[in-house]
């Protein structure tokens, strides 16, 4: 059995804990029952000994597998990881979603994507990464009574993501501690109106509106100050024609949405200006969680 889940870019400027989209960079896991438990990792995390044992995936998988089957069974897991960890591309969401889906598959129980998403909320309290990780595309999401309610927009092929990935890791829970404890009414209204406009621009495919809409007063500045080159990354992205350019999740990656025709030029500019950072041009992902039986 193979399960794969895409990377995600959350917040998209003003939509803190609300907006997110999926990009075509996937973590894939293959597994089968085995006499002995084993973990093999290829790609991101392959040199991290902490991931070879009871990592986040394994603990969530075990929790769900024993809840569903009341059995103890060993599995051999092989992970093919493309999503860099703690860089704001939703690696933890991908792991959470794939562990829950894998446990259901291993137990022979078919569940809806919506059910998997609601289980994922137990491990990640904000829905902006887990929703596109499960559903694909652009999503606006909220939580009511411990359930995720969301709306998805399919993203067209003529748009691409240019992601600039610094070496510096930014742990999400740590990065949430640098945020203000409260916001003025003026700033709250600012983010509310810009989030509404961002959502409308995505749904109406008014891409030229995104630069204005995707401005934020809640979280980006405080986080970007911990890696000030990110201000230059955003400036170069906009000078080069990016349609929107925002801190990806809690960082450190910077996400730009661009026209396909501009993507190679913008990526090359980024590579020239920021030679120490990784730069990738990615398709958007409209599938989310994929289960191959
Ligand atoms: N492939 C993976 N396998 C196991 N655990 C992972 C993997 N990717 C991420 N994690 C877990 O998620 C944590 C990173 O989560 P977080 O700081 O929220 O970063 P991100 O922005 O990438 O989601 C890692 O420290 C690790 O515990
Ligand atoms: N809304 C969250 C998003 C975190 O995304 P991640 O990819 O950095 O885990 C936040 O801003 O903290």
UniProtKB/TrEMBL annotation:
Any Pfam family = GHMP_kinases_C
> Residues that bind ATP, according to the entry?
84-94
Per its record, the protein catalyses: L-homoserine + ATP = O-phospho-L-homoserine + ADP + H(+)
- What Gene3D superfamilies does the record tag this protein with? 3.30.230.10, GHMP kinase, C-terminal domain
Annotated GHMP kinase N-terminal domain residues: 66-137
Q: Name one GO biological process term.
A: threonine biosynthetic process
Q: EC number(s) in its UniProt entry?
A: 2.7.1.39
Family annotation (InterPro entries): GHMP_kinase_C_dom, GHMP_kinase_C_sf, GHMP_kinase_N_dom, GHMP_knse_ATP-bd_CS, Homoserine_kinase, Ribosomal_Su5_D2-typ_SF, Ribsml_uS5_D2-typ_fold_subgr
Q: Where is the GHMP kinase C-terminal domain?
A: 200-275
Q: In which pathway does it act?
A: Amino-acid biosynthesis; L-threonine biosynthesis; L-threonine from L-aspartate: step 4/5
A GO cellular component entry from the record: cytoplasm
Q: Where can this protein be found?
A: Cytoplasm
Main localization is cytoplasm
Which PANTHER family does the UniProt entry name for this protein? Answer: HOMOSERINE KINASE, HOMOSERINE/4-DIPHOSPHOCYTIDYL-2-C-METHYL-D-ERYTHRITOL KINASE
Q: Tell me the protein family, please.
A: Belongs to the GHMP kinase family. Homoserine kinase subfamily.
Q: What role is this protein assigned? A: Catalyzes the ATP-dependent phosphorylation of L-homoserine to L-homoserine phosphate.
In Swiss-Prot or TrEMBL terms, this protein is called: Homoserine kinase
The protein's gene is named thrB
């Amino acid at each position: 059995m193979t399960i794969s889940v895409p990377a995600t870019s959350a917040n998209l400027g003003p939509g803190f804990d609300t907006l997110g989209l999926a990009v075509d960079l996937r973590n894939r896991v293959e597994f089968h029952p085995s006499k002995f438990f084993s973990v093999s990792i290829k790609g991101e995390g392959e040199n991290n000994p902490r991931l070879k044992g009871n990592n986040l995936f394994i603990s969530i998988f075990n929790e769900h597998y024993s809840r569903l089957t009341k059995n103890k069974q060993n599995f051999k897991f092989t992970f093919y990881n493309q999503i860099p960890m703690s860089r704001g591309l939703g690696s933890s969401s991908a792991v959470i979603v794939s562990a829950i889906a894998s446990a259901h598959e291993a137990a022979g129980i078919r569940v809806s994507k919506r059910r998997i998403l609601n289980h994922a909320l137990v491990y990640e309290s904000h829905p902006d990464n887990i929703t596109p990780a499960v559903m694909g595309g652009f999503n606006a999401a909220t939580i009511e009574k411990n359930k995720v309610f969301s709306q998805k927009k399919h993203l067209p092929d003529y748009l691409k993501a240019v992601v600039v990935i610094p070496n510096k890791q930014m742990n999400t829970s740590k990065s949430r501690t640098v945020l203000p404890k409260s916001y003025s009414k003026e700033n709250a209204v600012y983010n509310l109106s810009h989030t509404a406009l961002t959502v409308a621009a995505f749904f109406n495919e008014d891409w030229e509106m995104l630069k204005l809409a995707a401005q934020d007063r809640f979280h980006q500045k405080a986080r970007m100050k911990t890696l000030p080159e990110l201000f230059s990354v955003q400036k170069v992205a906009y000078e080069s024609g990016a349609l929107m350019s925002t801190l990806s999740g809690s960082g450190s990656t910077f996400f730009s949405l661009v026209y396909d025709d501009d993507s190679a030029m913008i990526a090359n500019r980024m590579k020239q200006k920021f030679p120490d950072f990784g730069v990738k041009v990615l398709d958007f992902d409209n599938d989310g969680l994929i289960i191959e039986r």
